[in-house]
Amino acid sequence: MAKKQKTFRPKARVPRGFHDRLGSALTAERDMLARISAVYEAHGFDALETPAFEYTDALGKFLPDVDRPNAGVFSLTDDDEQWMSLRYDLTAPLARFVAENYDGLPKPFRRYQVGPVWRNEKPGPGRFRQFTQCDADTVGAPAPHADAEMCALFADVMEAAGIARGDYIIRLNDRRLLAGLMEIAGLAGVATEDEAQRMTVLRALDKLDRLGEDGVKLLLGPGRKDASGDFTEGAGLDAGQIDRVISFVTATAQTNAQTCARLREFFGPSETGLAGVQTLDEMTMQLAALGYKEDRIRIDLSIIRGLEYYTGPVFEADLTFEAKDDKGRPVRFGSVGGGGRYDGLVKRFKGVEVPAVGISVGVSRLLAALALKDNTAKVAAGPVVVLALEKDQMAAYQQMAAELRAAGLRAEVYLGGSNFAKQLKYADKRGAPLAIIQGEDERAKGEITIKDLVLGAALSKNIQDNKQWREGQPAQFTVKRAALVEAVKQTLPRKSQ
Amino acid sequence: MAKKQKTFRPKARVPRGFHDRLGSALTAERDMLARISAVYEAHGFDALETPAFEYTDALGKFLPDVDRPNAGVFSLTDDDEQWMSLRYDLTAPLARFVAENYDGLPKPFRRYQVGPVWRNEKPGPGRFRQFTQCDADTVGAPAPHADAEMCALFADVMEAAGIARGDYIIRLNDRRLLAGLMEIAGLAGVATEDEAQRMTVLRALDKLDRLGEDGVKLLLGPGRKDASGDFTEGAGLDAGQIDRVISFVTATAQTNAQTCARLREFFGPSETGLAGVQTLDEMTMQLAALGYKEDRIRIDLSIIRGLEYYTGPVFEADLTFEAKDDKGRPVRFGSVGGGGRYDGLVKRFKGVEVPAVGISVGVSRLLAALALKDNTAKVAAGPVVVLALEKDQMAAYQQMAAELRAAGLRAEVYLGGSNFAKQLKYADKRGAPLAIIQGEDERAKGEITIKDLVLGAALSKNIQDNKQWREGQPAQFTVKRAALVEAVKQTLPRKSQ
């Protein structure tokens, strides 16, 4: 007790590359994920939660390099000397879970999982080392039905998240079409350099949206110099090969049936390609019968997703509306999620292929898009603040807050000093829409004053309109104590107008 | 490609001390936490999410021992050589967050946080190294108002979780009463052995509920031998001291006002004790004015919680109903959460005291209690399964599932082989309440068959009542296709009877 020591004072700081989230930044995500989860549930998917840790070998990484045990993932050794890593996605834990519980699970096994994942990467602006993923997968069911269901689910998820029909599109392609294309274009060699060339071709096709046909042709051939003068090496295809590849990509037609017809013609002799066309045809016909037509789900031959991983249909959810950023510039969001069929899920553990198909929602991109689209969401989300002006009236103030809560509103009593201006400043800082005021005078008359803080802020910004505003909607008014809840309810809806 | 290697096959296993949760085991927790969060929100608390990692020094641990870097917490070094640890509770991150953002936060600052925490401890039965915590804290507001509010919030949280009024009690004590008791009993010495003796006294008092007055007297005096013959060293108090301590604990009266009156008499000269009584008196009077009376919030002088930490009022939420375990034996749950006032929250970072008060809900204990209390929750929670008997009718089956979902029900189509028995077995394994069957015959007649799987299971268990059941409620029946949704809705409610 009498020991005198220099006190160590750690600096309070969030770890590098991580961030805290408070209030609406967090609840907007939580509420969206709850709506998406409800869609997954309705479709028969069961919620799964796996722990943050997996054994490192189960993640597909072997024992970490002793010098760099945290390359890509966060790893540590348990006290029994086994390496554990924080999961970097939700698919690797699913693979481990399915392999571990294979015999006991119903098959097909449908599960969804929502939760944080961790990446041990160099942090960048807006790129964090912990973020939320939201996946749904069907394990043990073959194409095309499980894949069609996944596309319908994806569309339902977009609408549940708050994206109106017409503002998104689920684009659909098949891994086997691209493999067939390589055969037809004479790019199916098995040497390492052939594989590299195929990847260059696919990267080129992935840019069709951005560079247009001419730009892609350069990337397929000799290479392309961009506006800044940087040169990108091309795939070195000859003119005939380029024509074939381009004629594939431009085979995307207005209707899915037309696209399939064109593809059948295009693939003529390629069995791999035709298998892909057959699946897409069956999927889109089944989807159309359920009402999911080209306005929601369209074959798009320029969709390229993680090709080393997928084995059949691939999907991408794209936002198609234009929003404006806070400087008024148009923003296009593009992809807010993707997925596809992959049959190697549990092969690492069990040595056998199990068919699987899944989607992953791009949570933070989707939220960012919704925030820009829906400016009305930016209303004051704070609680109604009941000021505490007389110390011996705390129970009366708490009673007011309790009545407001009972009516379904957020409400709290200020708990600090009795300074009036400080209390109002607090209410502002809290994003409170209203403050409830009952001083000695009001109390004597059995009244309360309701101060509209949002309107008050608007008033102070628009001095020229002050008189007009005041006449129409005063920023504060007085009502009988018994009318508290009714008066607050009538005042609140103004916010969202 | 032609490389031949012995394939490494990792064993699929969840890491030691961790567990997976699937379906209702997970959604029951999620739904309860959503209801509790809504109460926190309504009271003006804002959601906070901090990352899984904190710098180790911010957790109150200094650089980990190089030989045991993971003692108690999971730790690793970042690539800039800083030690990071996974949080072991939600209070340490709150302290770091408040210290880091102090000037920008409204004060008082009310926040709640729900999320996983990690403990690097020896796993045991039902004790996991990752579990969920659910906390609410008010930072920057002094007693008694913030403390009274926290008690009211605690009661509201219990009811939102699903505990009926009368089945729980919020017990209330004050750290300063116990400090005052030590003064009065002549146990206020500052030597290390005095501190140890005080802890022994407090541990003895903590057992009043279990051992009764006589058992506690032994623990306060010479020591106590339990039924198994194990001897617990006593605190070595003399008869007069024991009397004083016991007269304190038994001062708990029927009403909070009576308890406060008795305590005032008891503490006569002890300023520390009287300060505690004054706070409890003000809190309980304010709570009573708001309708929170002794049936919900009671002063209980035997409540002892983490004394090295709390500085004022302490609370504990106890369940008071008796439930039966699955062998019919009575189970008492006791504490399902606690909290109190602690003023040292950010002192480690900023060197100044900031008043704070908070509660923490014991999520897994509360869930376990609810599960035992509410057996009706154990209805079939799986989706309605539409069997897929004819491969070319998949769109028709999906249409049935879509109609059921549009009516707010969980529904899915079986996606596997066409074997009828296998499909029914799948539906059972999924916990499906109903299966929808449309084979060729039914389709020709424009009908569907609804098979009640829960009733079917009951029938097969009660052969003797078979005839009677069959006559009253058949386990399957046929309706027109157009009546699908209506018939399913009418059949489902049976489950919860």
Describe the structure in your own words.
The structure is a homodimer of 497-residue chains. With 497 residues, chain A is an alpha+beta fold. The first copy, chain A, is built from 17 helices and 19 strands. Chain A has helices at 24-42, 91-100, 145-161, 175-184, 192-205, 208-220, 239-249, 256-267, 271-289, 347-350, 363-373, 394-406, 420-429, 440-445, 453-461, 466-472, 484-491, and strands at 21-22, 46-49, 53-55, 75-77, 83-86, 109-118, 130-139, 168-174, 223-225, 231-233, 297-299, 313-324, 330-341, 356-361, 384-386, 411-413, 434-437, 447-452, 476-480. An eight-stranded mixed sheet of chain A has the order 2-6-7-14-13-12-8-11. A five-stranded mixed sheet of chain A has the order 16-15-17-18-19. In chain A, strands 3-5-4 form a three-stranded antiparallel sheet, with no helix packed on it. In chain A, helix 3 packs across helix 9 (271-289), helix 4 (175-184) runs antiparallel to helix 9 (271-289) and helix 8 (256-267) packs antiparallel against helix 9. Chain A is elongated and about 90 Å long. In chain A, 43% of the residues are buried. The model of chain A has no long low-confidence stretch (mean pLDDT 87). Strand 1 of chain A pairs antiparallel with strand 2 of chain B.
